[in-house]
Design goal:
With 387 residues, the chain is an alpha/beta fold. Strand 4 and strand 5 form a beta hairpin. The longest helix is centred in the last third of the chain and has 27 residues.
Length: 387
């Protein structure tokens, strides 16, 4: 239990629903600690002596997720050299936690719906119906209602999973829990590594509570562990702490960020990239206009503050001292814009760089890119990057 009424309400709801066999959908932002609640539900249920399995649906490639969840028969596909039990078979009588359930492909959603409705499933490559009794607890940071509207998630499955909904509030909405969590993370890390625990001064603790915590509990734990390792002094003041917090993470930031996100209403990271490229194109068009007017000898009122490219200022100075042919720079600018606005090229380059940075570790590369591992697998296949 924490000090926040919002968190305590979520915990109370999880404890109350635990003795039943109702499916539970846990919702909240990434990093709020959704993985703790299925364990609470399992421990307070009649299934607590039975198996408990946690499956990250977003980390399993689309081609193998049916086999992982429901099992397969020998010879069902090329690499199926023996029979394999899936999680629903292994967890029979217990609890199965499906994390990132919003990432499930449509074909798997159909199979999952049948398990929830009838307690039946088929192994991949088999026609023999298997029975199972599994309590399903799912979690997601996706807006499921929006996913249903967009056809990315089955509506009937959503209502089956959402028999009881538990919402975990973000850390910025329960700031009173920040001191407790920080002390726990610092103490746990110190005990594990046999070092003295770090302590925050009063002003440092106030600074910590004012942060926006975009990464929620995961980000707070990271800060506590960094301080424990890097700092020699075990007492941390506000000045020292500020070096470990992202720039702009203060109490005034949330309203600005929320306003920008809600007004733009980006659906995904591709739309964000489109906006960045569109803004770049506007800047380039403005630069072309200024250079064109200068080369034609027109008197133009120059407003450098309206142009984000510092190179325009240098171009302006050089034009004042020599005659520039009418098309000498404009053609180059036009060619640069056309070459740099290929979205697949940008996306492919970002994936290549992320893979190179993490030594071809696809899980770390997916985390770096802010996409699921299965999405990264698809992109790698689309761009022919398997080798």
């Amino acid at each position: 239990m924490g000090l926040s009424p919002l968190l305590n309400r979520a915990i109370d709801l999880a404890v109350r629903v635990a003795p039943t066999d109702l499916a539970v959908l846990i919702q909240g932002e990434s990093g709020v600690g959704k993985e703790v609640f299925p364990k609470i539900i399992h421990q307070y249920s009649s299934r607590k002596t039975k198996p408990y399995f946690a499956v990250n649906c977003g980390a399993i490639p689309e081609g193998t997720i049916d086999s992982e969840l429901f099992g397969h028969e020998k010879g069902a596909f090329t690499s199926a050299t023996s029979d394999h039990k899936g999680y629903f078979e292994e967890a029979n009588g217990g609890t199965l936690f499906l994390d990132e359930v919003g990432e499930l492909p449509m074909s798997t959603q159909v199979r999952l719906l049948r398990v929830l409705e009838a307690g039946e499933f088929l192994r991949v490559g088999s026609s023999k119906i298997q029975k199972t009794s599994v309590r399903v607890v799912a979690a997601t940071n996706v807006n499921m209602e929006q996913a249903v509207r967009e056809g990315r998630f089955r509506e009937d499955l959503y209502y089956r999973l959402n028999a009881v909904s538990v919402f975990i509030p973000p850390l910025r909405e329960r700031r009173e829990d920040v001191p407790l969590l920080f002390r726990k993370f610092a103490t746990d890390f110190a005990e594990k590594n046999h070092i003295p625990s770090v302590r925050l001064t009063a002003d440092a603790m106030e600074l910590l509570k004012k942060c926006y915590w975009r990464g929620n509990i995961r980000q707070l734990r990271n800060v506590a562990e960094q301080l424990s390792v890097v700092e020699v002094s075990r007492e941390i003041d506000a000045l020292t702490l500020s070096a470990y917090l992202p720039q702009g993470e203060n109490s005034n930031l949330p309203s600005v960020i929320k306003h920008e996100q809600s007004s733009e209403n980006f659906a995904n990271e591709r739309e964000i990239l489109y906006k960045v490229l569109f803004d770049m194109k506007k800047d380039m068009d403005e630069m072309k206009r200024v250079i064109s007017e200068l080369t034609q000898g027109q008197q133009t009122q120059y407003h450098p503050q309206n142009i984000s490219f510092a190179s325009v200022d240098e171009e302006y100075k050089s034009v004042q001292h020599e005659q520039v042919p009418e098309t000498s720079h404009i053609t180059d600018v036009e060619e640069y814009v056309e070459e740099s606005f290929s979205l697949p090229d940008h996306e492919r380059e970002m994936i290549v760089k992320a893979l190179a940075k993490h030594g071809n570790n696809r899980r770390l590369a997916a985390r770096e890119l802010g996409i699921s591992e299965r999405t990264l697998y698809r992109r790698i296949s689309d761009y022919g990057l398997e080798k």
